Amino acid sequence: MSTITLAGKDIARTDDGFFEDPSQWTEDMVPDLAKSEGIEQLADRHWVVIRFMRSEYLTKGAGPSVRALGKSSGVPIKELYQLFPKGPAKQAAKIAGIPKPIGCI
Amino acid sequence: MTKRIVILGAGTGGTLTANRFARHAEEAGLEIIVIDKDDDHVYQPGLLFVPFGMAEAEHLVKSRRRQLHRGVDYIEAGIDHVEVDENQVVLEDGTNVPYDLLVVASGATLRPEETEGLMGPGWGRDVFTFYDMEGSIGLQKALAAMDHGRLVLNVIDMPIKCPVAPLEFTFLADAYFQGRGLRDDIEIVYATPLDGAFTKPEASKHLSHMLDDRHINLVTNFNTGEVDEEAKKLISYDGQELSYDLLVTIPLHGGANFVGMSPKLGDELDFIPTDPYTLQSKVADNIFVIGDAAGLSASKAGSVAHFEGEVLVPNILAWLAGKPMPESFDGHANCFIETGHHKALLIDFNYETEPLEGHFPGPFGLPLLKDSYLNHMGKLAFQQLYWHLLLPGHDIPMVKAQMPRAGKRNLEVKHVKTGE
Predict the structure, then answer these.
(1) Smallest CA–CA separation between A91 and chain B, in Å?
(2) Regarding the domain delimited by B112-250, which CATH topology (the fold level of the hierarchy) does it fall under?
(3) B3-110+254-320 is classed CATH 3.90.226.10
(4) pLDDT, tens digit (0-9, with 9 covering 90-100), for A42-89
């Protein structure tokens, strides 16, 4: 576990960088979170995905997989990889302040 | 008053559920109807062996109808969709089948068409899957004709049925080409979207050593975006390329097609949102789900459907009688992993506990996470248990629905959270 300061708040995160407490997240943290993922310029399409991740988590209790994201967010998988090159589900989950998407078995 | 239970699918989960209900049909006043599109029940674990000439395709198939006990009605028909609010199933010929309680046991389907280029000119020529009968027979010929080059086993994305089968395939391929004296001329590559050989850390470590020992190259984090079958290469979403001479692919999976045609029933991938413990769907109180059709974090495997059956039937009987559901599924899965040369490995795990070393079902049983001849014999013997004990809905001696804790090493310290 590690702690970072975002928008004046101390945020506890897991070793791999996911929020311990998703309720601490606010939208003004997004630009800093994106930068730490190597995303300097946030486009509207990034926001579509981030907000979608957030609402999926709030309604279903878990973030979607890349495939589910491609089918339901309105952003095709190819574009998801352009927006979040290091893995859309993981990166967008970190930026949206939600837990690591459930790995399928 | 008679209650009608309609079961969609006559595979592992549907058949054992129908037969377990049949025993209570009279006392509980049940009418049991099972619907499936054909009369071919395939013993799916056997498909792995067909490409290597270790099983005959025709020995893996029996009549669906004849696995069902007296008192179960079988309708051989395609399902068009389910009307959740009307409590009825609509068949492809337009017939309505109303139900009091619905059990969805329609499994998972292969969706190769969802991957760009996969069903192109190479499909059936140098691109195969062994996850269906046609593919596994075709692959037998393709392997027999191969004497040099690169064999790539590629899992496109999770979830898939029997997540260990792709690894087993590479182990068996290694032994097969050794047997033909060609191993030095064949490169075997295992390309997976996961960050390791398997989903569970402890087993992943073991399995990746086993790949190393066999000189099978492991490529991780490979998210296949398209297949170029002219150039014979896989291209990942982030632009990596992997060329092949023979591609064995595990296509994308989804739920049954009718689920996608049924408003409110399934999720994005046409699996059904289900309570992981009671197996009641989250869609409607009178819909329950068993096996691969469920959108659960349990493995999509026959052993899981078997263990779920022991929980599902008492829960449904209680629910129909207006009582609290007595049983809770723990996510128990038990899989033999064939490692070649007449040996196999056994893993046993559930929602909470990853596969550990030790013995199953107790301290003096089969070795866990270690390959042995005994496990290989267990895997072969299982085919008989499947037809004669599991499908008829009997409990298998010594093997319980709840994961056994005895015999497992380091059980306390190696606790993992649900869903990780």
Answers:
(1) 14
(2) FAD/NAD(P)-binding domain (3.50.50)
(3) no
(4) 999 999 999 999 999 998 888 888 888 999 999 999 999 999 998 898
- From residue B1, give the alpha-carbon distance in Å to each of B27, B40, B73, B74, B101: 11, 34, 18, 22, 14
Element (H, E) at B8: strand B3-8
Nearest to B159 among A77, A78, A104 (CB): A104
Q: What is the mean pLDDT of chain B?
A: 94
- CATH 3.50.50.60 residue ranges of chain B are 3-110+254-320, 112-250
Residue of A68, A87, A100 with shortest CB distance to B268: A68
Residue A88 to residue A94: CA distance in whole angstroms: 10
Residue contact B297–A87, C-beta within 8 A: no
List the structure tokens of B137: 């027979």
The pLDDT tens digits for B121-137 are 999 999 999 999 999 99
Buried b (16+ CB within 10 A) or exposed e, B247-264: bbbbbbbbbbbbbbebee
Q: Which residue in this structure is represented by tokens 């739920």?
A: B255
Quote the CA–CA distance of B66 and B63 in Å, as a whole number. Answer: 5
Evaluate whether residue A102 is within a structural domain. no
Q: What is the rounded distance in angstroms from the CA atom of residue A29 to the CA atom of residue B418?
A: 29
Domain of residue A56, CATH code:
1.10.10.370
